[in-house]
Amino acid sequence: MLGLGLISIAGKELHWLLCVFAGIIMCKIVYQSTGAISPLLFTGYVKLDDQKKLEWNNRGFSTFHALIVAAASLYLLLESDLFRDGAQDELMINRTSAFSDTILGISTGYFLADMAMIFYYFPALGGVEYVLHHGLSMFAIVQSLLSGQAQIYIFMVLFTESTTPFVNLRWYLDVADQKNSKLYVCNGVALFFGWLVARIFLFLFFFCHMFSHFDQIKKVYPLGFYSLLIVPPILALLNIVWFWKIAKGLIKTLRKARHSQ
């Protein structure tokens, strides 16, 4: 029995490593594909300087990762029974599945790849706030993956990545000199409301959910328990700061659009 248990643990660890590696390879493939496809879709791509091309391609795999984890999080939180109250005998805080582990492994690979690029080209791809965001996110994901605890809260946070495609599209339109287009204005409005729902209201629900299930949260191992109390508030604060910047940018864009009519 002990031997079977060790084989099972080794199998899980191998699965995690393969998923992390798959996440890194995914980033590499999408990065290269973005660089190959972009000149065909946007003729101005070839005129961009090397730094702009670097960020353009980087935002390609950032968008791809966001779509994958947002869709997976939505499925695990709303469609599946994995985290539904009363659906299983296992405490909600301890529930995992092969699929949830796979998504967390892939996401870890993404954050490793993106963090490596951020450090290598610092500060071209983002400043200290990006390092803090990625570092905290990766710290929380790896803890949850290795311990098998609190995955429900990790997927709530990962769903906030659903706003990333709007952030990246705004940057793409800015670089493409389309700040006066209707698409830019519509994307700005979508980003504002998307951020409000996915990164402000969702975090309020996150904290209410933690409070109502605190009897289970107290059963999380010490480092994980204190991480749940510390990391989400920091991420929430970052989201509020960014939301304030988004709101100011939207107001400026709407005023400019009104005057141009």
UniProtKB/TrEMBL annotation:
Keyword Membrane in annotation: yes
Gene Ontology BP, a term: lipid homeostasis
Subcellular localization: Membrane
Major localization class: membrane
Membrane-topology descriptor: Multi-pass membrane protein
Key words of the record: Membrane, Transmembrane, Transmembrane helix
Membrane-traversing stretches: 14-31, 61-78, 98-121, 185-212, 224-244
The keyword DNA damage belongs to this UniProt entry's keyword annotation: no
Pfam families: TRAM_LAG1_CLN8
A cellular-component GO term for this protein: membrane
Segments forming domain TLC: 51-255
PANTHER family linked to this entry: CT120 PROTEIN, TOPOISOMERASE I DAMAGE AFFECTED PROTEIN 4
Name of the protein in question: TLC domain-containing protein
